């Protein structure tokens, strides 16, 4: 019975239509990117990737709320997370290059913008979904948001150490790359 419901959900619901569109956009982005040698093709593939990520916001409970501001906020949140997390492996690979300090500083700027966007959109969503301090301390969702807030503060403190202690050391000492 579950498998029989899949075509019905995919073809006859808004959720299904958005999911199918997203699933169609992703392989098209890969095909457009090709070998990655053309900046123009990469730019188009990147925009298709942005569309696919933004469509994700139309698949969850925020989309069901019918609040366009929440959907836009979640789209920005997901895009910022994609930029930040998606940049970590290329950053790691690029740090093996000639100027790891310059590379780390450039990524640091991108990361600061991404994390600031994550924090701002999370705050907006929390305010809309939790409903202030009573919801923060009196609901399971609020408790989960509190844990996420403490994790964010921990990660930001690691980022500060990385940016102001470890990154400057990349240019100064040969063993800094291991740290």
Helix-strand category: mainly alpha
* Alpha carbon gyration radius: 20 Å
Whole-number average pLDDT? 87
Shape: flat
How far is it from the N-terminal to the C-terminal residue, by CA? 54 Å
Total number of helices: 9
The overall strand count is: 0
Task: Please report which band the strand proportion falls in: under 5%, 5-15%, 15-25%, 25-35%, 35-45% or over 45%.
Answer: under 5%
What profile does the largest beta sheet have?
none
- Could you state the order of secondary-structure elements as H and E? HHHHHHHHH
Give the proportion of residues in helices. over 70%
Query: What low-confidence regions span 5 or more consecutive residues with pLDDT below 50?
Result: none
Describe this structure in words.
This protein is mostly helical. The chain is built from 9 helices and no strands. The chain is flat and about 60 Å long. The chain starts with a helix and ends in a 7-residue tail after the last helix. The mean pLDDT is 87.
Question: What's the structural blueprint in terms of helices and strands?
Answer:
Blueprint: H1 2-12, H2 14-33, H3 39-56, H4 61-65, H5 68-86, H6 88-94, H7 100-130, H8 133-138, H9 140-172
Helix pairs in contact: 1-2, 2-3, 3-5, 5-7, 7-9
């Amino acid at each position: 019975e579950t498998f029989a419901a899949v075509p019905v959900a995919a073809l006859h619901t808004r959720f299904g239509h958005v999911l199918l569109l997203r699933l169609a956009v992703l392989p098209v982005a890969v095909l457009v990117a090709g070998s990655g040698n053309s900046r123009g093709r990469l730019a188009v593939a990147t925009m298709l990737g942005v569309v696919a990520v933004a469509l994700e916001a139309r698949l969850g409970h925020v989309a069901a709320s019918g609040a366009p501001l929440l959907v836009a906020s979640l789209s920005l949140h997901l895009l910022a997370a994609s930029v930040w997390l998606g940049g970590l492996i290329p950053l790691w690979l690029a740090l093996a290059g000639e100027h790891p300090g310059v590379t780390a500083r450039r990524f640091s700027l991108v990361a600061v913008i991404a994390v600031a966007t994550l924090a701002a959109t999370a705050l907006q969503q929390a305010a809309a979904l939790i409903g202030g301090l009573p919801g923060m301390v009196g609901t399971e969702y609020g408790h989960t948001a509190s844990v996420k807030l403490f994790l964010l503060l921990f990660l930001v403190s690691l980022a500060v150490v990385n940016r102001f202690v470890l990154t400057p050391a990349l240019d100064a000492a040969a063993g800094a790359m291991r740290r």
